[in-house]
Amino acid sequence: MLKGLLDSIVLIFTGDSALTNIILVSLRVTGISLLISTLIGIPLGIFLGLKRFIGKRLVIALLYTGMGFPPVVVGLFVYLMLSRAGPLGQLGWSFIPHLYTTGAMVVAQIIISFPLVAGFTMSAVLSLDSQLRLQLHALGATPRQALWTMLVEARVGVLISIIAGFGSIISEVGAVMMVGGNIENATRTLTTAIVLETRKGDFSMAMALGIILLTISFIVNVAMLRLQGKALDQ
Predict the structure, then answer these.
(1) This prediction's pTM
(2) For 30-64, how does the pLDDT look when each residue is reduced to its tens digit (9 = 90+)?
(3) CA 110 from centroid of its chain's CA atoms
(4) What is the DSSP letter of 58?
(5) Which of 222, 220, 181, 202 lies closest to 27, judged by CA?
(6) Cα–Cα 20 to 30 A to 229, which of 1, 45, 180, 203?
(7) Fold of the domain built from segment(s) 2-233
């Protein structure tokens, strides 16, 4: 056990090429997925938190269902949709990702993280004082100014929504393995590589990957907590 740990540390600090490639693929896929989920999820969460419309309860119910959706089922859904026999695969459009590519992995991770970002953002907006919007309008604020002020007030909850979205996909295994195929130097991520190396009995590499994964998660959460602390101090 100790020898495996020491070997894993050596792998990390010697810049093993296979390890580096896995890290880069993971960061690229997770980063793109989180960015798209944030750009879509935050506006939707704000809209659901502020607006009243017919069918709102149904939309929120679907959103909550998505927040608890098993990732492996998401992987199955994306696989069926993008396969050659699937509805999107049959179209043959160039912008539709193919299976066993990073594009397919991004699609799966967006479906996993998007409901969390939207749901937590909606909760943050709903937690604001119900009279705040009326007070802003009474002070002469334009709809855009009022919306921005409310978003600033809910910034801590929005940051938490981004953290939740990140955590849901950086550690995901089943969906990305199903649609990405865990292909070496192409679609192998930290989590899928850990599973593979453990099955192979290469515990040094598996532990190295685990250390990197934990380090990335720790750094991102510390950064978010610092932003959250600054937001609370203002």
Answers:
(1) 0.87
(2) 999 999 999 999 999 988 888 888 888 999 999 98
(3) 6
(4) H
(5) 220
(6) 45
(7) MetI-like fold (1.10.3720)
